[in-house]
Design brief:
It is built from 9 helices and 6 strands, in the order E-H-H-E-E-H-H-E-E-H-H-E-H-H-H. The strands form 3 sheets. The protein has a two-stranded antiparallel sheet with strand order 1-2. A two-stranded antiparallel ribbon has the order 3-4.
Length: 276
């Protein structure tokens, strides 16, 4: 029989906290990506890209399971397989690493940003559906293919927009806007994906009232690790002026900083003109 589900067992607390968490992770991750793009090899590009991917991956994973704290199935007890749950975190970090590395090593052309956005968005979606496959209850789930496709499209489009805003606009306001876009992407993808799901509880299943304490006792320790990583990354960002300002010259694909073209007045002063 079809089960009755609720996404908001604690009201708007879980979606709001989940959204803010993914905004923080995205803000840190996107700033790390910008740092690697604008400083190139001289700024330990690989290390910043890894840190950025970990921040984004940890942020979206934590968002997902904070949101799942508010998820209940009426009359059924919900649990999570620990191995599958951790696998979703590994996949999120690994796929997002690939996406941000494309930007970090190949530059910020429209094609590169598009490819990176697709990969990053697919990583967000993969994390969600792998995490959902780890959910355990006395029954099974099914998904509407059209709504699943819409959730993936939301993740890809918004991830692309967030990467573009992060690397193309160089103010703190634009960085905040990029992280908000990513927050909307991840949160929107999550709840669209949840809307695609139908729950079928086994006929012979015992009707139980799940204790919120039991679910929190499992999820909160799992969330604590990624939250600690985000806190550490925030400290690193605060102690790096370039991470906060982000207004230096961008690095090209070869890692060298791109220099602005000399003005016509300066060229006349030096007696040289650009080749036609």
């Amino acid at each position: 029989m079809n089960g009755t589900v609720s996404q908001f067992n604690y009201g708007m607390v879980t979606p709001v906290v989940a959204f803010l968490t993914t905004c923080v992770g995205s803000a840190l991750g996107l700033r790390c990506t910008v740092r690697s793009v604008r400083k190139g090899r001289e700024g330990r590009r690989g290390a910043w890209l890894v840190l950025g991917a970990v921040c984004i991956g940890a942020g979206i994973w934590t968002m997902h399971f904070i949101a799942m704290i508010g998820f209940t199935i009426q009359g059924a007890e919900v649990g999570y397989d620990r191995s599958t749950t951790l696998l979703s975190l590994v996949v999120a970090v690994a796929v997002v690493s690939l996406g941000v590395s494309i930007v970090g090593y190949r530059g910020t052309s429209p094609f590169v940003l598009g490819a990176a956005g697709v990969i990053t968005g697919l990583g967000v979606a993969a994390m969600h559906y792998i995490g959902m496959s780890g959910m355990r209850f006395d029954g099974h789930m099914s998904f509407d293919a059209v709504t699943v496709g819409l959730s993936v499209l939301i993740a890809v489009v918004a991830s692309t927009a967030a990467l573009w805003a992060a690397v193309s606009l160089h103010t703190l306001a634009s960085a905040a806007a990029a992280s908000a876009i990513m927050g909307v992407a991840v949160t929107g993808m999550h709840y669209t994906g949840m809307a695609a799901m139908s729950v079928h509880v086994s006929k012979g299943a015992a009707v139980v009232d799940q204790s919120s304490v039991e679910l929190l006792g499992f999820l909160l320790p799992m969330i604590a690790g990624p939250v600690a990583v985000l806190a550490l990354a925030a400290v690193i960002v605060m102690f790096d002026p370039d991470m906060l300002l982000g207004d230096g010259p961008a690095a090209g694909a070869d890692g060298a900083a791109e220099q602005p073209a000399p003005s016509a007045a300066k060229q006349r002063h030096t007696g040289s003109w650009p080749a036609l």
